[in-house]
Structures are given as structure tokens and as C-alpha cells.
């Protein structure tokens, strides 16, 4: 399940970025353009975040055994990988989606990361005994 969800998110995100590239904003920084003028630092921080997430997930046996935990991990990892592909190939993350000038442009990978992280905050609760 994890692999299929991850590949679906990765493929759909890359497809939307290619189809909507003309309307897209290129983001060389982190979320909301932070550290945009520091590409080496950005890649280093993203690599560190990915490593820390992997270590945390690997050590959390309970989380790995739940469907919610597996789905959350697939979403976060697929989003990170898709944005990393942009950084390596284009030199910036392609953000083709906009909901108005009051909110920064984003992409499907960003949405997957946010939803995945939110799912991590709400682990599956054990069944109540009656």
C-alpha cells in the first residue's frame, strides 16, 4: 500500500507541475521561500530532515504497524522525494497551485507532506475493551 500511495502522489505531483509549469512559481527556498538565497543550506537541511524522519519512523514500531502510520509515511516521503526531484532537475521546487495572494503558492507534494505530518499527530488509538 505504501509504495502505491507514494508512487501515485509522486506521479500526480510531477504531472501537475509539468502541465501547469507556465503558471508556476519557482521556489528555491524552504516552505514559504525561507532561505531562498541559500540553496546548499536548503539541500542540507532537507537531507537532514529526511534522515531524522527515517530514523524516527524506523524506531517507531507501533506507528509502522498501523495503516494510518504507513499512509502518513508514504505521503511525507513521496512529497519530499517529488520536491527533491524538482530541486535536482530544475534547481527549484515548482509551485503551480494558488488559492490567492494571501497564501503562498504550493504543489501537491507540499499538500501530501502537510497531511502526512498531521496524520502522524493522530496515531491510531487502541480499541476500548468493553
Structure description:
- With 130 residues, this protein is mainly alpha-helical.
- The chain has a domain at 1-28 and 67-100 and 107-125.
- The protein is 62% helix and 5% strand.
- It has helices at residues 2-19, 39-59, 61-64, 67-89, 108-121, and strands at residues 25-27, 93-95.
- A two-stranded antiparallel ribbon has the order 1-2.
- Helix 1 (2-19) packs parallel to helix 4, helix 2 packs antiparallel against helix 4 (67-89) and helix 4 runs antiparallel to helix 5 (108-121).
- The protein is globular.
- It starts with a helix and ends in a 9-residue tail after the last helix.
Spatial strand order of the main sheet: 1-2
> Could you state the order of secondary-structure elements as H and E?
HEHHHEH
Question: How many angstroms does the end-to-end distance come to?
Answer: 31 Å
Oligomeric form of this entry? single chain
Structural class: mainly alpha
Characterize the overall form.
globular
Radius of gyration: 16 Å
Number of helices: 5
| Average pLDDT number | 83
Sequence stretches where pLDDT stays below 50 over 5 or more residues: none
| Overall helicity | 55-70%
How many strands, which pairing sense, and closed or not: the largest β-sheet? 2 strands, antiparallel
Strands, count: 2
- Beta-strand residue percentage: under 5%
Summarize the topology.
Blueprint: H1 2-19, E1 25-27, H2 39-59, H3 61-64, H4 67-89, E2 93-95, H5 108-121
Antiparallel strand pairs: 1-2
